[in-house]
Predict the structure.
Amino acid sequence: METPFVRSIPVDRSRPYARRVHAVSLIGPATCAAGLIWAILQPHRLTLLHPRGQGLWWLLFEPPLLVVIVGVLFATLVARPLISDLEAGGATTR
Amino acid sequence: MQPHAEMVHWAFAAGILFVGLCLLCEAIVGTRVWRMRAWRAYLWPSVAFGLGLLLWPVMAFFTNSSIHMYAHGSWAEVLMLAGGAELGLVRGRLTSPLWRLTWPLAFLVSGTAFLVHEQNPWFFARSAFLHHLLGWTFIGMALVTLALAWRPSSLVLRSGFALIVVTASVMLFCDRDVAPVFGHLSPLAGVEHR
């Protein structure tokens, strides 16, 4: 029976990439969550909840919704392709 | 038919928030990964340039005094200059790193314009408070971007800058035409409309 000694622990090179992937994937949802929390705290700023008698501009510009929209756009248009690039980079390093 | 000034501020806040998130992402993943796709390299400089371009109609239609017009006009100019310089650097048409000094210039001019064109004290109304706060924040951002021009790869400076940009967008989202700040609203400011 032979028991080999391991003298150096192999470094998990994917770990920094994994942390970055997690960080990038969290930014969009965190932004959406911030918008939703704002909407819950100040529902009067969402004119969609009480649209009767509101002008066009008040229906178009709803700050908590704008934050959610930015979060969604960022998550789908920027974060998703960036994560796939990061994972491809991590795979080539491994 | 025109939207209220506060709505224009919210729209710009959304654009600035998007730029801030992109900057934060670039700081996290590094410039090499960020520029793996060509369109991404141009993304936030283009949005910054576009925001500068959109400030011109704001200057033309939403300013009610000369000093407001000069302030908005100077923001439009410096934002277009800094965004355009960044686009030139990304494209490779501009090579000197000194072009990055357009950002501290932009923030210094913007901060000074904020502070100069707000003639009311901090607690006059919410918009006055935010003008003072944004003015000093922008001057702080000028210092951070100046440091970034010397140490462009510093993770702390880059993420700090991105977070300050996000904070500036939050300040713009807080803006209202006539609203109290911490319970203070001068009777001279007018009636709170909503």
